[in-house]
Amino acid sequence: MIFGKGHCSCLPRRDLCMIMKMRFRLWMRRKALVIVAILGCVTLLTIALSELSGHQMGTFSVKRLKDNVKRRSTQVVLSSKQVLFTAEVAARFERRRQRMKEACRRLKLTSYRGMRHASERFIFPTRSSPVVLYCPVPKTGTTFLKKTFATANNASQVIWVDRFHVRPVDNYDKAVMFFFTREPYSRILSAYIDKLWSPNLQFWRVLGKPLVHGVRHNASLRSLECGHDVTFPEFIRYFIDGMTRGSRINTHVVPTHKFCETCDYDYDYIGKLETFREDAAYILSAINVTTSESYSNNDDVISHHIIQAFYTNHIDKTHCAKKHHILLRAWRALQIRGIISMSIPFPFSESQALSVFRTTFTLVIQKAVDKTNLIFRNLDQKQIHSVSLSKSRASRSSQSPPLLQSRDRQKKMALASAYSLVPKAHKLKMMKLMREEFELFGYEAKPDDVFASKKDRNQKIFDLSDI
Questions:
Q1: What's phi and psi for 176, nearest 5 deg?
Q2: In angstroms, rounded to a whole number, what is the distance separating the alpha carbons of residues 221 and 354?
Q3: Which of 387, 391, 419, 417 has its CA nearest to residue 405?
Q4: Are the C-beta atoms of residues 285 and 153 closer than 8 Å to each other?
Q5: Phi, psi at residue 126, to the nearest 5°?
């Protein structure tokens, strides 16, 4: 029995029943807690035995690895699937560091510190100890990382310091330092598309106008006043002339090793845009920055091009470009980036474009993006099916090349189309001027997409004759 005989016999019957009910509930609650504690101990013991067993057998559980990653990364989300941190990623960073160190010694690269104060090229993303220094190389995922630092979950730990408001660092050797780089030819094309090809009134004025004055003979008065129609071959000439003379060029095309003085500092991490998701997730975890930003989302890119297009059309009082051409260039920029399929034509005529508002253009682009996703998905499925059939017919010893997704194929086609417009002599000069980039970061100096012949290249997408 729970209660002794005659317990609280002096109390009225109703009060006695109430006390007995309260004590009974307390007893049941204690019993439930004991049961939960026992079950918890059994669960922990089971997990410990399974972990020990897995370690002894030299195997591991993918689910356990994901859980460990989640704890370590503190909810770093860079895509719809959780990125797995493996020894392979760490080894990749170490190989890159060693390659860069060996190339610095072999090439005997001189110091570039005299160009400006060393601290002016770094962002201090956290207040952590040791100090974290990030060198934001343009066109290498910098916008995403800056946004990540500004909207991190641990926002109280994040500060923003740009190049004009910097703080001194006592000892760079004790700081955690990192930067991202990118395949040099595609980085230069990306800078051209974003700053000169896409509607961008600011860069047409500050970069396009001086560029036309410097490299174009017999330029029209409209081109000299606007700088709106710089071609990609002219942009390459601007890059070659600036690098050859040692004059100041736009930061978006300054080689990474010069921008970050890669041979003067002992960088801990060298990320690459080609492996951005894995690299960024690993680095953000290492410096204890947490975020829920998604790098795979194209919404920011689409929004950027739409805003720039309508801002340019609204502010451009000199009428450098017609509204139809402005919207067409924004559309083509999204095609070059692989966001809209090349098979989807621009939907507005010159007269129709005059009455197109921003909301309408946004909806049309979103429909095109949805259609593109469906097109690319079907093409990829057909490619996988075709490769599977050829594999079944071929011998087992034969090895097929890695599959390239339709979106990536379209971007590579755009790259090839752009460089097919550039004279071979200029491409060879580029290769020579960027030799250090290839040696330091392991990129191919003479890729087929850049140096292939003009045959079967779709040059129409870069045609500015009617714009």
A1: -85, 120
A2: 25
A3: 387
A4: no
A5: -140, 165
Between CA 347 and CA 349 the distance in angstroms is: 7
- Phi, psi at 105, each rounded to 5°: -70, -40
Global confidence as pTM: 0.75
The tokens of 177 are what? 């330092």
For residue range 149-208, what is the model confidence (pLDDT) as tens digits? 777 644 444 444 444 334 445 555 677 889 999 999 999 999 999 999 999 999 999 999
Query: Token pair of 65, please?
Result: 């690895």
> Hey, which residues does 135 pair with through a beta bridge?
179
Partners of residue 158 on adjacent β-strands:
126
How far apart are the C-alpha atoms of 433 and 427, rounded to whole Å?
10
